[in-house]
Amino acid sequence: MFRPLTRADFPLLHRWLDRPHVARWWNHETTPEALERDFGGTTDGTEPGEDLLALVDGAPVGLVQRSRLADFAEYEDEFAALTEVPDGAVTIDYLVGDPARVGRGLGTEMIRAVVVDTWAIRSDVPAVLVAVVAANTASWRALEKAGFGRVAEGPMEPDNPADDPLHFVYRIDRPATGSG
Q1: With 60 as the cut, is the pLDDT of residue 27 above it?
Q2: Which strands, in side-by-side order, build the sheet including 127-133?
Q3: Per-residue pLDDT, 138
Q4: Going by C-beta distance under 8 Å and a sequence separation of 6 or more, which residues neighbour residue 29?
Q5: Contact status, residue 84 vs residue 120, Cβ threshold 8 Å
Q6: pLDDT given at position 6
Q7: Displacement of CA 84 from its chain's centroid (Å)
Q8: What are phi and psi of 77, to 5 degrees?
Q9: What does the longest C-alpha to C-alpha distance in the chain come to?
Q10: Is a pLDDT exceeding 90 seen at residue 179?
Q11: Is the whole-model pTM more than 0.85?
Q12: Looking at residue 17, what is its pLDDT?
């Protein structure tokens, strides 16, 4: 289950982004000003995309970002340099906040759930594409376990400048629906 991120969640997000297992891959500033800059617009609905808290038994356990690639032209161009990007495709990013829950399948379940949710609420989305820095083995394995297939690899701008630009691109397509 998911719910939209609110400003009241920013202290929790700050703690998660500061945790070593998250900071390594997200490389995100965590000052109140940076959180406002990077999450305030989607929280208000004035910027495209969604920031969603993943919940287990009503408690927040992680964050999923979902956005249409077309809303972020430079990022879409990076994908398009490596693979076909269907009109209407979305991308996701995700983190498990609590280190005690890492390595227990929660990331995979969050990914599966947001894909199911995407198919349910966005009938015009044909596919979900995700780029993962090649060194982030846990992330791309979670995608594979969630049913994504690797469709490309190549250079993309890494979130962390310490990382090599090599990324793996994963894709899952909307399931075909039977008719009559």
Answers
A1: yes
A2: 2-4, 50-56, 59-68, 90-96, 127-133, 166-173, 149-155
A3: 93
A4: 35, 38
A5: no
A6: 96
A7: 19
A8: -65, -40
A9: 55
A10: no
A11: yes
A12: 95
DSSP-derived secondary structure for 141-155: HHHHHTT-EEEEEEE
Cβ pair 8, 123 in contact under 8 A: no
Taken in order of first residue, the domains within the chain and their CATH numbers are 2-173 (3.40.630.30)
State yes or no: pLDDT of 155 exceeds 90: yes
Distance CA 166, CA 50 (A): 26
Question: Phi/psi of residue 63, each to 5°?
Answer: -125, 140
pLDDT of res. 178:
58
Nearest CA-CA partner of 13 in 39, 48, 50: 39
In terms of C-beta density within 10 A (0-12 exposed, 13-18 middle, 19 or more buried), how is residue 149 classed? exposed
> Is the separation of the CB atoms in 91 and 67 below 8 Å?
yes
Q: How many CB atoms lie within 10 A of CB 98?
A: 17
CA dist., res. 152 & res. 131, Å (int): 9
pLDDT in tens, 99-134: 888 888 889 999 999 999 999 999 999 999 999 999
Per the listing, tokens 């983190």 go with 95
* Residues 6+ away with beta carbon under 8 Å from 166: 133, 134, 135, 153, 154, 155
Neighbours of 108 (CB within 10 A): 17
Pairing mode, strands 90-96 and 127-133: parallel
